[in-house]
Design goal:
The complex is a heterodimer.
Chain A lengths: L4 H10 L9 H19 L19 E2 L9 H6 L4 E2 L2 E5 L4
Antiparallel strand pairs in A: 2-3
Chain B lengths: L2 E12 L24 H4 L8 E2 H13 L7 E2 L2 E4 L9 E4 L9 E7 L2 E14 L3 E7 L2 E5 L6 E7 L6 H17 L12 E11 L9 E6 L2 H20 L8 E5 L4 E4 L12 E2 L6 E2 L2 H10 L4 H12 L3 H7 L3 H14 L3 H18 L11 H12 L5 H12 L5 H7 L8 H14 L1 H8 L5 H12 L6 H11 L3
The chains are: A alpha+beta, B alpha+beta.
Chain lengths: 95, 477
């Protein structure tokens, strides 16, 4: 399977990545190579293999339902670009 | 052309845990902005989510209650999108392996029972809140809600009218509260609903193109939003147009739905298994525990009320609609020793009337079941008449006293002493010779006049049975 330049641009947009136009072609080739590798693996018969959702063959550990966090707003907001009335301020997201 | 409406609902119900789904921050409603958003909720680098065991237990409980398959293994996935109220750049949700699989919920509309399929229910984290007003052209973000556990319950497109959709939504709402997995508070956003709506010519198998109505947060608006959207779709199609698959927002003020501006790409969420979380295994031990904890479900309670107390279906439905109300009713029957019919009349009529008027729920009732039982016992033993009982009930609303104290202090005890009633009647007969004559000449209706006058003269305290008996004796034709 080979990705086009358009595919690469779309993926980059979805991930909000800025890429240089001159690099797009080589990204397309690299990514296509990876997909080829996946295609090669897909060709193996895995009928009797249970799919794994995670490379570690373990179950998720659970924690008790307890509130253990305290209010650290001041510390967190000290590194935020802009805050007001306890809120983080961001560029307007609706018109 | 006859059109058929097809509706599927996605209900987000907030699970009533103390802490968040993947962090130990509090979920309490109404805190100062961002005081309950910890490093995990903020998506700061280097943190790891750890799943809350109570969230898993609650989801399993819901699964059992709708007769669904509960997965042995379920997997969390990342749903990728960028929006400032979701600081990680993705929402942790479930895609291919939800915790609850296919189940069902029976609804009743116009006396007909219908089974609605539940496709799945999966766990996910809620996003934060955006405040768009008045921050010098900027948006304010409160992340207290980010990471709050949600159970998203997805139905099959099995509903054929807004009425059915409401009935289904109410049943799910009732159930999550019964199971005590959610407070169901719609004002606070604990129970929200998106509706997928399409139309098709009656008789056609194939579904039409659907639109998704977002975040409709009251039962009333669900009905209105669906009906107005169906009208819109019919009009477009009948004018030769086509429905665009899109997300629409219901505007309650204008009673219309409108398209939410959204780019094509916005729906490309690129789900993949979250590498920060391992698969969740539901053990046999947990299953056994949850089954043992399962309360009597509303549907079953309703049937039992009909059988055990000989209630009609509607009354049984009202009384079993919440766990607290059902308990109030059963405790009242037991402690008053009165028949269930009398108890149900007082609860559904007088008591719920007052509670509705004052927007209270049964837990906030100004009259406990013990006090109401005391009142019903005084009716049963003829201390007071049913009419006087209403007066005592009114007085109880504004006082802590029990029925006996109010009857005593207001002198409301029924007069059963026939001598005293006779004296009243004798005076009325003497004062109204014209009416006596009319009655003796065959005008039966006048009998009611004498009963009324006697009750009035006794301030409602004369025993009506006794009054009738004595009057009949004295006015023999």
């Amino acid at each position: 399977m080979s990705l086009t330049v358009d595919d690469v641009n779309k993926i980059a947009y979805l991930a909000r990545l800025g890429i240089d136009a001159q690099d797009t072609e080589s990204y397309a080739q690299d990514l296509s190579g990876m997909l080829d590798l996946v295609a090669q693996m897909s060709a193996v018969n895995t009928d009797d293999v249970t799919p794994m959702a995670h490379p570690l063959d373990q179950a998720q550990r659970l924690r008790p339902d307890q509130v253990i966090e305290t209010n650290n707003r001041e510390a967190f907001q000290a590194i935020a670009p802009q805050v007001e009335a306890g809120l983080y301020l961001v560029p307007k997201v609706i018109e | 052309m006859q059109w058929e409406t097809v509706i599927g609902l996605e209900i987000h119900t907030q699970l009533a845990t103390k802490s968040k789904i993947f962090s130990g921050a509090a979920t309490a409603y109404g805190a100062e902005p961002n005081t309950q958003a910890c490093a995990v909720d903020l998506g700061l680098p280097g943190v790891l989510p750890v799943l809350n065991e109570e969230v898993v237990r609650m989801a399993v409980k819901f699964g059992f209650a709708i007769d669904a398959e509960v997965a042995d293994v379920s997997v969390f996935a990342r749903k990728n999108y960028f929006y400032p109220d979701s600081p990680k750049g993705y929402q942790i949700s479930q895609m291919d392996h939800p915790i609850v699989g296919i189940g069902h919920m029976d609804i009743e509309v116009d006396g007909i029972t219908k089974r609605i399929g539940v496709t799945r229910a999966h766990l996910e984290e809620d996003a934060g809140k955006s405040l768009h007003e008045d921050f010098h052209g900027l948006t304010g973000i409160d992340l207290n809600r980010a990471g709050t556990p949600l159970l998203e319950i997805v139905s099959e497109p099995d509903m054929r009218s807004a009425k059915e959709a409401i009935a289904y939504m109410r049943k799910i709402h009732e159930l999550v509260q019964y199971l005590e997995i959610s407070d169901g508070n719609m004002q606070e956003g604990s129970f929200r609903c998106d509706a997928n709506v399409s139309i098709r010519p009656k008789g056609q198998e194939e579904y039409g193109t659907r639109t998704e109505l977002k975040n409709i947060n009251s039962f009333k608006f669900v009905e209105k939003a669906i009906n107005i959207e169906v009208e819109r779709q019919i009009e477009i199609i009948e004018n030769g147009g086509k429905i665009t698959q899109e997300t629409r927002l219901y505007d309650a003020d204008k009673n219309e739905t409108r398209s939410m501006r959204s780019k094509e790409e916005a729906n490309d969420y690129r789900y993949f298994p979250d590498p920060d979380l391992l698969p969740v295994i539901i053990s046999d031990e947990l299953r056994t525990q949850v089954r043992a904890d399962l309360p009597e479900l509303p549907q079953i309670k309703r049937q039992r009320f009909i059988a055990e107390y000989q209630l009609d279906a509607e009354t049984a439905g009202i009384l079993s609609s919440t766990k607290q109300l059902a308990h109030y009713f059963e405790a009242l029957v037991k402690s008053s020793g009165c028949d269930a019919k009398t108890c149900s009349n007082w609860v559904t009529g007088d008591l719920l009337g007052v509670l509705n008027k004052q927007s209270l729920d049964i837990a906030q009732s100004p009259i406990s079941y013990e006090r109401l039982a005391g009142l019903l016992q005084r009716i049963a033993d003829n201390t007071i008449s049913g009419k006087i009982a209403k007066q005592v009930f009114e007085a109880m609303l504004n006082s802590e006293d029990d029925a006996d104290a109010i009857i005593e202090s207001q002198g409301l005890k029924q007069i059963t002493d026939s001598g005293a009633i006779e004296a009243i009647i004798d005076k009325i007969i003497a004062d109204n010779p014209a009416q006596v004559e009319q009655y003796l000449n065959g005008k039966d209706k006048v009998f009611g006049f004498f009963v009324g006058q006697t009750m009035k003269a006794s301030q409602g305290k004369a025993n009506p049975g006794e009054v009738n008996k004595i009057l009949q004796g004295k006015l023999k034709r």
